[in-house]
Design brief:
single chain; alpha/beta; Rossmann fold; six-stranded mixed beta sheet; four-stranded antiparallel beta sheet; 10 strands; globular
Length: 249
Amino acid sequence: MTDPVVKATALRKCYGDLCAVDGVDFEIGRGECFGLLGPNGAGKTTTVKMLTCALPVTGGDLTVEGLSVKEDPRAIKYLLGVCPQEVNLDPDFSVVKNLVVYSRYYDIPRAEAEKRAAELIARFHLHDKLERPVEDLSGGMKKRLLLARALINRPRLLVLDEPTTGLDPQSRRQIWQEVRDMKKNGLTTLLTTHYIEEAELLCDRLVIMDNGRIIEQGTPRQLIEKHLPGGGNLEDVFLKLTGKHLRDE
């Protein structure tokens, strides 16, 4: 792959004799949606934390846009947009203030921050909640606000950590459509999810991790054709490789 946005080579994270991530290699191409799948304890969260510079690397190399997470963590953070699984919006702030205040982490001038916030609020259909406290929002609205916040700095790489967990089907489909639109606009995305259908629908390529290692990677179609040539789906592939149902994790 030429000019990957993310490149991991022999990446490791160990705690004494226990290696949560044990020598993984992967690349994320520009403009693609790349998925990380695996049961609990597989190493997904640890990998994401190293990528977002929240956890130091034990061994190997990990770069984002050619910058090393070991040497350039601050510069990398400026390139990332992170939508966490947990809702960590500021409950004391309104919808718009959550966006404007967050923009200060990226040294975005106030006038520009307010302009971007207005655009994102319109895009994610939150205009009627503009000055409302976040506690007044539904679960789906909070997730949309988290996604808007992750885009305030116009990132090179968007990290979506289980973005639809706990949402009703309609809210989940709304988030899916937003991810599709971002893909059309060329935004590179890393997705972790506990929903097989989400990975199959959104991911251009994905890796399946177990026990800290990558046990398979490819497009959803490639994995199905390789492991279940007689017919099946991505969930059947996951079960065959890990012995577990992802949705039960």
